[in-house]
Amino acid sequence: MSFLDVKDLKIHFPTDDGLVKSVDGLSFGVERGKTLGIVGESGSGKSVTSLGVLGLHKGGRAKLSGEIWLDGEELISASAEHVRGLRGKKMAMIFQDPLSSMHPFYTVGHQIIEAYRIHHKVTKQVARKHAIDMLGRVGIPEPARRVDSYPHEFSGGMRQRAMIAMALSCDPELLIADEPTTALDVTVQAQILDLMVDLQREFNSALIIITHDLGVVAQVSDDILVMYGGKCVEYGSADDIFYRPEHPYTWGLLGSMPRLDREPTERLLPIKGSPPSLINVPPGCAFHPRCPYAERTDGKADTEVPDLAETEGGHLVRCHMSRTERRTLWETEIKPVLETQ
Amino acid sequence: MSETELLLSVRNMEKHFPVTKGLLKRQVGAVKAVDGISFDVFKGETLGLVGESGCGKSTTGRLVTRLLEPTAGKVVFEGQDITHMSQGRLRPLRRDMQMIFQDPYSSLNPRHTVGAIVGAPFRIQGVKTEHGVKKAVQDILELVGLNPEHYNRYPHEFSGGQRQRIGIARTLALKPKLIIADEPVSALDVSIQAQVVNLLEDLQNELDLTYVVIAHDLSVVRHISDRVAVMYLGKIVEVADRKRLYNSPMHPYTNALLSAVPVPDPKVRKERERIRLAGDVPSPLNPPPACRFHTRCWKAQEICRTVEPPLEELASGHQVACHFPENAPEVAKETPEAT
């Protein structure tokens, strides 16, 4: 069993308009020192997954089922109090927008100290020293002075650094970063990604990065999970996903991106249509209305949900097409077009 | 594509937003959002304007369309100086110069139907259409890939990508010559981004449009632009055609920007040498003197702190504002002596 092992996780929200299946039977694992990238478009359920792992849906309207094993402990059946004790200490989160996830009334230092003192019986002075130390480690200049600054006094990049300092202040073994760099400029994004990778190595923690940017996942991930309509459609090593992808949605994502590392093409190859609403996920394979190969499955695409089946060495794909068919398509139709880019 | 005919020309344009203090609103400083930039846009081309947040790229777009009043400088559109033209005289020109906005949610009035939104330009400009406004609007909706039968629907009934198409339809209504697109795809999902980028390119070919595309995403800008201008803290630091800029950038900032873009290829992360820039973009309230990039530049020397480098043409069509440009042709410039 991995350090974090999620099995058949379902997070459903009953609403007036019907049941929203934000996460519908998701399984994945992350080892210490490894990074999992979760990729998907808006409404694919990636953020709900991360909040679910942290137990932040407990007690709300959400209906959770499945198992989440963290270091041998099951979290879904555990009490909210117990999960609360783990949160911050054993697992922590870096949110997308640091300005709205920090309290504007309290200094940055106060917020780090607060989290640290909940989990450690230390005096304020010791906690403050620790906060300054953490701010220094994430690269904030003059941490002894900046510890007393308010979030609005920091720039976007510094705020994200402070947020990382806060998340790491209790040495969590699992760190989840939800779109950690989306709000930042590219040069700052590069700094923050480097910082996260460096700190992960230092703390040997398990890291989950949730993003819509394939460039970011390619840079940091060991494994990648591609989500669509609340389900995993492809799961494999970074090499599997980028060099041997087998799901038409993954092909679509790769074709949609203009790339700096290749000669520019005349046209991008977008996916037709738009991502489904989770309240009204298409029947059968959720991707079939947008899939150019849907008619190859003898009508199965719009009636049966395909299984997430292993194709080779841990590479899982949820598609009705046979493995040979997908391989042939990739080698003959998709890859040549992508490579000429 | 003929890049001979000049459509828009901007000279030494400045926009300073005053910072006031106290009861009497005494001016204590100015945010120099745009601080003396010059560029030309030729008919039929796409000029990309890239830079990080706060570099003044959106302000530039708004100055060119006169949604903001320039503090100084000159904007010439089709040979007419529109810098200080009155709104009344400017109105007929608005037909030829339109804007696409970033946020497809806030840029469409939620209380108007698509028909009213896309038809508004006809009414405001008093344009007579052959078969009525409705027919004209439906034709445009079809052109941008929307269903003409959705004429009576409201914006909330559409997805983000479709709304952006509505915004584009409104822009195209009066067949403008120049379109300023401010982050046209950044609010959209990856798969939808590609659709909209392709649409913009198709429309350009079909309707002979000229674009100024403002964006922070360097890969999108490379895909869509013929020429690219890089901005940093209110200044243009480099302008070149796309191939030159991306293959042999001269300004260190352009280099750093390009190397910071994550590439979707796991192998590359191990091999690629990355330039790590330290710190953030300084505040435009108090920009560094002389070369504004010197605080983050690894090549900076004494001269960079004292003398501002002019934007000079170092190779044909390739302008750079730097004392120590990279990839520069040997004869073009002698190394300036640090004094």
Q: How would you describe what is shown here?
A:
The complex is a heterodimer of chains A (341) and B (339). Chain A is an alpha/beta fold. Among the domains of chain A are: 73 residues, no CATH class; 93 residues, no CATH class. Chain A is 35% helix and 23% strand. In chain A, strand 7, helix 8 and strand 8 form a beta-alpha-beta unit. By secondary structure, chain B is of the alpha/beta class. Chain B is 31% helix and 24% strand. Chain B contains 11 helices and 12 strands. Chain B has an 8-stranded mixed beta sheet, with helices on both faces. In chain B, strands 2-1-4-5 form a 4-stranded antiparallel beta sheet. In chain B, helix 3 crosses helix 4 and helix 3 packs parallel to helix 5. Classes of the chains: A alpha/beta (341), B alpha/beta (339). At the A-B interface, helix 7, helix 8, helix 9, helix 10 and helix 11 of A face helix 5, helix 6, helix 7, helix 9 and helix 10 of B.
Shape of chain A: globular
Number of helices, where a helix is a run of at least 4 consecutive DSSP H or I residues of chain B:
11
Integer average pLDDT of chain A:
90
Number of strands of chain B: 12
As a percent range, the share of helical residues of chain A equals 25-40%
- By CATH's scheme, which homologous superfamily of the domain at 6-96 and 176-320 in chain B applies? P-loop containing nucleotide triphosphate hydrolases
- According to CATH, the fold-level topology of the domain at 6-96 and 176-320 in chain B is Rossmann fold
Runs of chain A with pLDDT <50, length 5+? Answer: none
| Average pLDDT of chain B | 88
Helix-strand makeup class of chain B: alpha/beta
Strand content of chain B: 15-25%
Query: How would you write the strand order of the largest sheet of chain A?
Result: 6-7-8-3-9-10-12-11
Distance between the termini of chain B: 46 Å
Ranges of chain B where pLDDT stays below 50 over 5 or more residues in a row are 331-339
Oligomeric state as shown: heterodimer
Biggest beta sheet summary of chain B? 8 strands, mixed
Give the fraction of residues assigned to helices of chain B. 25-40%
CATH class placement of the domain at 6-96 and 176-320 in chain B: Alpha Beta
Domain ABC transporter (chain A): 4-254
GO biological process, one term (chain A): peptide transport
Pfam family, one (chain A): oligo_HPY
Organism (chain A): Nonomuraea turkmeniaca
